[in-house]
What we know:
The chain has two helices and 13 strands; from the N terminus they run E-E-E-E-E-E-E-E-E-H-E-E-H-E-E. By secondary structure, the protein is mainly beta. The strands form three sheets. Strands 9, 10, 11, 12 and 13 form a five-stranded antiparallel β-sheet that branches. Strands 1-5-8-3 form a four-stranded antiparallel β-sheet, with no helix packed on it. A four-stranded mixed β-sheet has the order 2-4-7-6, with no helix packed on it.
Amino acid sequence: MPKIQTQSPTTSKGCLDKPELSLDSQNVKLVVLGEQMLTESGIASQSKSIGYTFEAKANQKLTYKTDKNVCIWVFTPDNQLLNTGVLPTTGKYTIQVSAPQGSTTVDLSMGLDVAQATPASTPNSSAVTSAPSPESTPNSAPPTNTTATRTSRSNFPKASCGDPLPTNPNDYPVDFYPVYLPDSEANLQLARSRFCQDALSKRRKDSGTRAVQVAAFTSKQRAIEFRDILNSETSGSSIGPPTRFQNKP
């Protein structure tokens, strides 16, 4: 049976009340949580934590579960440990995951105000410096489920946007949906200064024309949400057809 975190802080065997490892921004992924449970996969170990950041509102209930014996901590927007399943303030929260020993692939399911009879979650936490996970390359994206809440404009600008390539070979094949702006120097500078610093001008595979690729997502819904955010400050943003990666590069 998957382990579901409860409203009081719980500690898996071998876990500390506070993590000893700092959370590297390169190992943190930005996710959008809603009433449908979102499952993300990653490799955690004693020497490397993985993390997920998400936007939430005060009084929402966080639920998460995994079938692995791992250490999980949740941090509030002001980098305090979360000790209850009810989120105290509106802002960006961070989930940090590590393994008490060895290395393991973790499938972590997460949701906000999940409409099911599962207790709201909260783990052991500790202040952590978290940044949204950088997107690997414009043509990359990892497995992820569709999400129910809109991406917040306040998340930007970021060093990188979208989804990174999966690290687990079993997660392939994987599709990603690129989000474009019309090709122009003005759009390229806007994308880099206001949204994603790694935006670049490239040739679209579907039309053969040049465009500014701002990000790429495995979830079409999140690509749509990101396109709408772009269109709130400019116009002409579009989603390209998905590109499939059959094997890990």
